[in-house]
Structures are given as C-alpha cells and as structure tokens.
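WARN no homologs supplied; continuing
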Amino acid sequence: MLKIVMKTIKDVKNLSAEFKQNWFKYVVLFMSLDVLNQFVLIPLFRIITTFVLQMGAIPFVSYSNLQIILLTHPFVVLALVVELLAVLIIIYAQFAFLIWMIKDNFAIKSSLKKVIQNLCHLHPGSLLWLMVCFLLIVPFANIVFRTPLLAKIKIPEFIVDYLTRTWWMALILIVFYVAVFILGLRYLLTLPIMIIQKTATRQAMKKSSQIMKQNWRKILIFLLLLGLITFILMLILFSASYLLQLLWDLLPGKFALVLATINLSILQLISEVILIWSSTISILFLLKQVKVGKTTIKQRISHFVIILIALTFIVAGSGIIFSNVLYLEGWSSHKPLTISHRGVNDENGVQNTVEALKKTSKYHPDFVEIDVHETKDNQFVVMHDENLKKLTEVDKAPKDLTLKQLQGLVARENKAKGRLVSLDQYIAAAQKLDQKLLIEIKTTPNDSHHFLTNFNRRYSPTILSHGYQVQSLDYRVVSELHRINPELEILYIQPYNFSYPQSVADGYSMEYSTLDSDFIWQAHLQNHVVYAWTVNDEAIMKRMMYEHVDGIITDNVALLNRSIAEFETNKSYANRILNYVIAFPVLD
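OK structure emitted
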C-alpha cells in the first residue's frame, strides 16, 4: 500500500508539472465552459422548461400533478424527455471537447471536429446507457468531471433526511450509496473510452470494467489523495486570506475595503485555479489509464477568439468584483425571516404541539410553521403525518378520526410528550405568545369537497388580521385558495428546482439543496418571497443568506439566530470573508 501511495504522489507531481506548462490555457478552457454553462446553457434550459410547462398550462411539476401530466399531457412529457436527452448530449459534448483540447494541445478546430464525430457515433440505444453512466459518475463529478450541468443531478436533502429516520431505511440508503460508488468507480473510464476510441456506450463500459478490475486500487488512491491535496490547498488559501484581512482591517478609511475586495477576488480566482488543476490532472491521469497520450498538434488561436474570450472574462470579472464590493460593504445583505419548522427548536418537544410552541417562542422566531389536516368531522387538527402511528402508536389517518378523538391522543417524540390539538387551540396559544404562524395545509384523496372553503371561512379573518401566512405542497390548494380569497398570502412548496417561478402563488418554499440565486432573483422580480427549507447547518444558513432568501425554515431556531447575528452584525471585512468561505466550502 505504501508503495502505491508513493507512486501516486509521484504521478501527481509529474502531472502537475504538465499542468504548469499550459496552466493559463487550462484555466481559460475550463472557465470558458463554466461561463457558457452558468450564463447561457443553464438559463436557456430553464427558459425552455418554463415555456414547455406554460404551453401545457402546468405551473410546476410536483408529486401531486405528476400522474396527471403523464396521462393527459403527452406532448409536454415528450418535450421534457427530449430536453433531458439534450442536456445529456451537451454534457457529453463538453467532456469530449475537454478531452480533445487537452489531448491535442488546445487545437480548437481539430477538437471541435472530433467532438462532432463523437456525437455522430451516438445512437438512440446509447443514450439510455449514457444516462446510467452519468448517474454513476456523479460521486466523482467534483474531482473528475466537474461541470455545473452535471452538478445539478442530485438527490434533494429532504429525501435523504426522510430515508435516514429509521435504521433499516438508513441501511438501505448506505447500501445504495456504496453500490453507486463501486459501480461509478468501475465505469469511471467509460466516457474517455467512448470519446477516444469512438465506441458504443455498452462496449466502453465493458472495457472500463476490465481496466478498473486491474487498476482500481491505484485509481482510487489517486483520486482520494488528489481530493485530500485539494482540500489542504484550499484550507491554506482560506486561512491566509482571513489572516491577511485581519491585518488589513486595521488600516484607516477605504483602504481596508479596497484590499478586502482584492483579497476576496483573488481568493475566488485562486480557488478556481486549484479546482481546475485538480480536474485537469485527474483527466490526464485517466487518459493514461486508457493509454492515450497528448499529441503535438499545434494551431493558432484566431484574434477574434482571443478578443471574445478577453471580453467575456472582463465582463464576468467586473461583475464578480462589483458583487464582492456590495457584499463586503453590506449593501447586499438581507436578514431572512426565522421560521421554526413544526414549532420546535433543537428537539425541545413534540412537533406541532402547544408544549413545544411555548418553549420555541422564547427564541422569538418570526414565524412558527405548522401542519394542518382535515378530520373525519371536517374540523382541523395540527398534525404533519398522514398516519398517526409514528407519534401516537395509533394506526389511523387524521381523516379516520373526529377532532374530539384526536384531541384525546398523546404524541411522544424527542423524550417529550404532548396532546394533539385543534388548529383553533394552537392559534389561541400562539396569540397569547404574540407568535405569527405559517400554516401548511396537508391534503389527502379523502378530504371533503368543501375543505378549502371551510378553511377560508373559519380562519382567513384571523390569518389576515395577525399577518399569518399559508403554504401547501399541493398546487391545487394554492390556486383554489387564491381564487377563493386573493388577500391571503399563499406560498407554494417546491421540493425541487428546475424551472423559473411561474404561478399564482405569492411566494415559494424551496428545498434548499436545489435552490439557487437565479430562482430567487427571478422570484424577486415578480415581488414574490422565497423561503428555504429545512436548513439545519450553519454553513448552509449563511449560504442562503448570501443568496438573499427571504426566510429560512429550520429545526434549530437558536442556531439560525446565532448564524444571522454572525453574518449581519460583525462588520469587519475579515469576518465577511470568513462567512463567505463557510457559505461556500471546499469542493462544494
């Protein structure tokens, strides 16, 4: 093992020397593709998705309308499938372009010609296997196949959280991740083989499996060591930037701001170069495993291309510097609303109970988020789950029992207990505490036909007079309640983000792992708020603040309060740089 590690260190050193010879070209190559993805392709695909959904009169794709879309909107489904295939083809083309540019010594015309040849060798049967291949290499994307398009493929965190609540589901998830990792490593060379040897996907996967069977230890150790080196370099960079800024903050006037802007901009640039170095030598290393070396093709880059690249980087660089000034001066800071998820703080009671509400209100959240189900007698009980068994050991749905029967049940969670209460009881307790509520309406196929009309009649006066808000994961609730009472502030809950905001909702609750500044910016242009859920990590809280979300839904209000205080109140530039580093960690 030691011999392999020493050999790996030597390989990293040799490949780094190769990178050093053309480091500027590598940086331009990777950053140009990054700019293309961030500012052209990703927005373009979102516009196309939004347009396709609009043509089908579909505001969003969600679990509640997925079956309807599949059965009644065949052209929308077809268009979305075609779009997915286009994304896969573009990712494949970009990686092919990277490989040919690296292999052929940055010969643009030759590389583009070979990329077209690679695309011509793709056939419909290869696309399915290509999709499988991309899904398998996601665990290695940040080191090997780093592209913003591929990075969009992820499992939302709320699904992972749900799957880890019981030991047997957590075990299945672990087994799944291990299997994906093993298969991803096994087929890691598939794309290079497809591109260089112009083979079909299945044949390339077979060859990759054969090569990896003999070399998996060497390749895995190389990737792990490369990741460790990258982490250490980033840590040194971030520490140096922070310590330097501590000194520069002592300077008078605007000198500290100027140096802080330069410091943060250089930090961003060098961190990008480090990641490009990591990606480049990993590709060079994998090409060597396929026994492909660099060629000596030389081709002059036209003046037009040089000017175009220069202008692109000047515009992008100016935008980054301007954004850094706004961030460092605090002009772009935006304090989000603090929202307690299900009325608890750091497991201080049973979710959706008055007992937990009383404890949580001491942390002064702007809103307490609760869940509401309709009961058998068309009343409203504060409860999240569609089955009572987990909290009360009663294997019934809220709709199976009357409100009086439900109020007799005791829920147990987090070594605490509390009675189930009606929405009226919870509102009364919240009013005594002067606590605003964010009421999530849960729906089931068994709800009454007058469910929303009844809810609006009974609670809209209280909701409006006390500044409460309503939200739902079911878009039918959002649209119908908006029609019944346009004065209510209604948010639509989104578990995944892949299109621009378009709905009758007044705002959105978005699962944080796929939420980005582009969606937030578009929502703000429409005067719609965006809340992020469910955020329980300090680094992610600060990232959401950096992205300007309007509210953060969390299970730990105390931690959120501390994170906001650190992000907003400490005006030193050093701490703002530290907050940036925390919000955007290494290899994220």
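Residues 100 and 111 are 5 Å apart (CA to CA).
OK
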